[in-house]
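Hi there,

I know you've been waiting on this one. I reran it after we fixed the sequence typo, so this is the corrected version. Both the input and the resulting structure follow.
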Amino acid sequence: MKTIRVSAAVAALVSSAGAIKIQSKAAPDVFGPNGNDYQNISPDYDMSRIGISIDTHGSGPLCTVGDWTTVHWVGRLKDGRVVTESKAEGDQRPKTFTLGDHQVFKCWDLALTQLHQGDIATLDCPSFYAYGDAYTWPPVGGEPIPLNSDIDFEIEVLECGRTPEFVQQSPQPVTTTMQSNQCMWLHWDESQSLRDDLVLSTSSLPGQNGVFELTKLERLLKDDASMEWYYDYATGQLHNGVGWHYDLKNDKLANDGMKGEYLDHKDTLGDSTHEIDTGDNAAFVANAKVANQFNGPTTGKNIYYDPQTRQLTTFHNGMHYHLSLPIDPHHEGPKVGTFLQWLPFGTSVPDAHEPDHNGKPAEFRIEYCDHHSVV
């Protein structure tokens, strides 16, 4: 009887092991939302928050982190409103970026590793992997994007799996002063202690591309030309990088004619004591040869960067002005999308802890771009 019982126990154990072995050969567990022709088998938590539906299959290589990737896209809110579209913005070119290098939405960096060259897919991106809680105007125009909005991106992968081809670069400047004709980012110094790395950028207005843009603080995107700046030592002008793009076909930098935009102010700056209230002290970039809403055709303004105070200043009508941040009456402080202004010396208390109600000087840290210069 004991022999029979032991045999039965062994048989049960063998049967259980066999079941486990068979089960291990089954399809993997689903770790996140599935979509059309897509099953999420990644154990990565971030991937579990993103939905992917493949609408058209491509035949190219799989996109991998570190490769150059080129895409066209359309971004829609959940109510169907289009808020961004590559073929309707700027020069209508696709975007090329290094996958995984934080040059685009985090949702793209994550989801594109699941796609192949030639794929057309719809990405269901949660707000915190897209625009988040940033107050953002849609690049295509219209009402602001509601805070914390989930976005559906239709992505067309034109190219991926391409290894970057590095070319001879200009020597990297090492001093803290502005180097002539070198690409640089101007980091708002205080953002080093904040969640976001904010840099000086520009905000395009409808119909004003290449003519007039307001300056603002924005999260750094390394290949966004509106966040790149060039100092012309001969003229003292600080030019914005809008207009520069990488010509993939000819493997070189090219410009579509908008490099004439430079940091500017109204020609009548200082003529009124109500400029802060009317916005006439706004800082903007403009094409000197074209009239805009503030100035007619004019001459470029001289800009000086003081490496001691780390402030951008200019001299106009016998008075020095510094590029400044407005002070929120509720003391919330500057954040993404904050527009900048020119204030005369002495308007603000230098102590960053006790600025007056008008504003305080903005301090900027220079970081030189690692990809190109103007010659």
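Quick highlight: The two ends are 95 Å apart (CA to CA).

Best,
R. S.
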